[in-house]
Amino acid sequence: MFLVLQVMSDLYLPTVTSNIIDKGIAQNNISYIWQEGFKMILVSFLGVAAAGGNIFFAATQSMKMGQKIRDDMFDKVTHFSEADMNRFGAASLDTRTTNDVVQIQNVMVQILRMMLMAPFMLIGASTMAFVKSPRLTIIFLITLPVIALIVGVLMYYVVPLFKVLQKKTDRINLIFGETLTGVRTIRSFNQDHYENRRFDAANKDFANTGIRAFTIVSFIIPIVTIVFSFINVAIIWFGGQMVSNQSLAVGNLVAFMTYSGQILFSFMMLSMIFVFLPRASASATRINEVLSVKDTITDPAIPVDFPVQQSGTLSFEHVYFRYSNAEQQTLQDINFSAHTGQTVAIIGGTGSGKSTLINLIPRLFDPESGVVKINGVPVNQLTQHDLHEQISINQQQAILFAGTIRENMHYAKPDATDDEIWYALTIAQATEFITTENGGLDYHVEQNGDNFSGGQKQRLAIARTILKPAEIYIFDDSFSALDFETDAKLRMAPKE
């Protein structure tokens, strides 16, 4: 609505100017000039107000759309299986959720502001120009197809470059993220110069691709400007002759030139859209690749309630598992049962499939064949929520979140009291470095727990696992960074 009002105001003003020249100035009619002048001021204010409304809603809707896409992306990624996470990679998912969404937001603003306005303006200005002088309009019929052809050829070459540019953004984020995470390792092996060269190579590659893409794009506006400069010369040349032989009024020539400028402006707006569209198109494709992934781990159509028993069991029955595209199976014919109160140790060499076996219990993967059961019910017949409620797992890598120790503990049990948290920390042998002098449970935890040692992070992660009330507790190589004494105490504490 605001856009239409703005375009109508812009199209009406040249007609008012034409009337002032032909009926006011030419006939020395001062009162008519004042009358049309006030009308021009009123229409101008209306156009400005409409433009403001259009800009406001364009910005509001583009931001809301970006918010919606990021919410959907985040929700989708949190439900990814391990295979899906490995398929995309963390760096690429970061880029798709941030940079790619920004590209979509930018083009959304341009669409609501320019792309919708340009056709209205182009059609309206062309119609009004034809009304003022049908003969001069022939100039546009010759030149506009030429401009459209030139822009189309340039876009043919630039679209693939923008698609490549987004992939190279992934590469930069990957290297930068690895450097931030592994900065201590890089320094300890004195590989600063190697990492600088690696990032510089990726950065130059990105820059060179961007230069090629935007160099091609930069030709659009100069070409359009040159063509329209020739159009203006032709309008003045032929229009002047028509004025001299009195077949065209001076006011109509001025109005025609104004409409010509609006047509030029419309093409400029469309050209700017063509700058944003290819990159946004590539970003939209990358976003849809994430959103269109079908969940490989899904809840059953008719789920079974979790069977509560006094003596629970966890059993693997002829379980086989193979990673996608792997030639050999990681797990073959796994059979065992664990009962309430028992501790089962799974021992094997590096890469033998211990973590893979563990991940089958909470359904981070599904087996190729065979079945994993809890209390006699296959885990794939339970909802993931009900299944995860009964399992407390401590992964191989101790993950802590930025915040406080209390907030990290609440991940396991949101309503846990301070006494319960301290009890879990005591079992995990973590109270020695968490004292009230250091802030206690309000002690600040940096991202990834970087302000703690490896052993301290492991003990905090173990405390969080113990804090959660569950039927099954899983510890995946969770004691590797502990000294022998702490390891022994920690193993004995849960039994006691």
UniProtKB/TrEMBL annotation:
<feature type="transmembrane region" description="Helical">
    <location>
        <begin position="40"/>
        <end position="60"/>
    </location>
</feature>
<dbReference type="InterPro" id="IPR036640">
    <property type="entry name" value="ABC1_TM_sf"/>
</dbReference>
<keyword id="KW-0472">Membrane</keyword>
<dbReference type="Pfam" id="PF00005">
    <property type="entry name" value="ABC_tran"/>
</dbReference>
<dbReference type="Pfam" id="PF00664">
    <property type="entry name" value="ABC_membrane"/>
</dbReference>
<dbReference type="InterPro" id="IPR039421">
    <property type="entry name" value="Type_1_exporter"/>
</dbReference>
<dbReference type="InterPro" id="IPR027417">
    <property type="entry name" value="P-loop_NTPase"/>
</dbReference>
<dbReference type="InterPro" id="IPR011527">
    <property type="entry name" value="ABC1_TM_dom"/>
</dbReference>
<dbReference type="InterPro" id="IPR003439">
    <property type="entry name" value="ABC_transporter-like_ATP-bd"/>
</dbReference>
<keyword id="KW-0547">Nucleotide-binding</keyword>
<dbReference type="InterPro" id="IPR017871">
    <property type="entry name" value="ABC_transporter-like_CS"/>
</dbReference>
<feature type="transmembrane region" description="Helical">
    <location>
        <begin position="111"/>
        <end position="131"/>
    </location>
</feature>
<feature type="transmembrane region" description="Helical">
    <location>
        <begin position="137"/>
        <end position="159"/>
    </location>
</feature>
<feature type="transmembrane region" description="Helical">
    <location>
        <begin position="259"/>
        <end position="277"/>
    </location>
</feature>
<keyword id="KW-1133">Transmembrane helix</keyword>
<feature type="domain" description="ABC transmembrane type-1">
    <location>
        <begin position="1"/>
        <end position="279"/>
    </location>
</feature>
<dbReference type="GO" id="GO:0005524">
    <property type="term" value="F:ATP binding"/>
</dbReference>
<keyword id="KW-0067">ATP-binding</keyword>
<keyword id="KW-0812">Transmembrane</keyword>
<protein>
    <submittedName>
        <fullName>Multidrug ABC transporter ATP-binding protein</fullName>
    </submittedName>
</protein>
<feature type="transmembrane region" description="Helical">
    <location>
        <begin position="213"/>
        <end position="239"/>
    </location>
</feature>
<dbReference type="InterPro" id="IPR003593">
    <property type="entry name" value="AAA+_ATPase"/>
</dbReference>
<feature type="domain" description="ABC transporter">
    <location>
        <begin position="314"/>
        <end position="496"/>
    </location>
</feature>
